[in-house]
Specification:
Chain lengths: 114, 118
């Protein structure tokens, strides 16, 4: 049962544009929200992450916006570049139990057209 | 460090055969995860270990799937017998977390094993 819903499934953006990917989670308690980037033939790699006590986090061209009351968070890629073309996964970590178990969204395939 | 190492990178097998996927986590990492990736279902967590002990195997789809971690540097995921619907990319990931949710722990993924069952 998927607990993190991600949209859109795919996205095409012009070079220089803004890419926006959205995620929503359900009633399970989560305490950490990372985004992973995956290039073809590679494993996912951590891109940026946020804790629920912060509403926004920015690292270079990548920004996470977090709305705790709405249980939604999004990734914004400013000045999108062809090299950003990849699959992006949002994820959430339950705040109980062991380890760094992550629940992933279904993924968004981003294509940046030059 | 070479990162998480998975083998083989590609595996093609016939339905009914046994398949064994292998993973070497990053040295010093305490938690190990097996994920399956398909177009239809995305990234699914199959099982994870903490300090070589299986913690949660609720994602293992059927009894045909089994996973072991005999020591801190090696894990296997076995499918016996394999079926065409098992075709997917299987990822292994490890984290340095102590297992008690301390800090924001990054999961490091291997490059995956692409399994095709014909």
């Amino acid at each position: 049962q998927q607990q993190v819903k991600q949209s859109p499934q795919s996205l095409i953006v012009q070079k220089g544009g803004i890419s926006i990917i959205n995620c929503a989670y359900e009633n399970t308690a989560f305490d950490y929200f990372p985004w992973y980037q995956q290039f073809p033939g590679k494993g996912p790699a951590l891109l940026i992450a946020i804790r629920p006590d912060v509403s926004e986090k920015k690292e270079g061209r990548f920004t996470i916006s977090f709305n705790k009351s709405a249980k939604q968070f999004s990734l914004h890629i400013m000045d999108s570049q062809p090299g950003d073309s990849a699959t992006y996964f949002c994820a959430a970590r339950p705040n109980r139990g062991y380890g760094n178990k992550l629940v992933f969204g279904a993924g968004t395939i981003l294509r940046v057209k030059s | 460090d070479a990162g998480v190492i998975q083998s083989p990178r590609h595996e093609v097998t016939e339905m009914g055969q046994e398949v064994t996927l292998r993973c070497k986590p990053i040295s010093g990492h305490n938690s190990l995860f097996w994920y399956r990736q398909t177009m239809m279902r995305g990234l699914e967590l199959l099982i994870y270990f903490n300090n070589n002990v299986p913690i949660d195997d609720s994602g293992m789809p059927e009894d045909r799937f089994s996973a072991k971690m005999p020591n801190a540097s090696f894990s296997t995921l076995k499918i016996q017998p394999s079926e065409p619907r098992d075709s997917a990319v299987y990822f292994c990931a490890s984290t340095p977390g102590r297992g008690d949710y301390s800090g924001d722990t990054e999961a490091f993924f291997g490059q995956g094993t692409r399994l095709t069952v014909v």
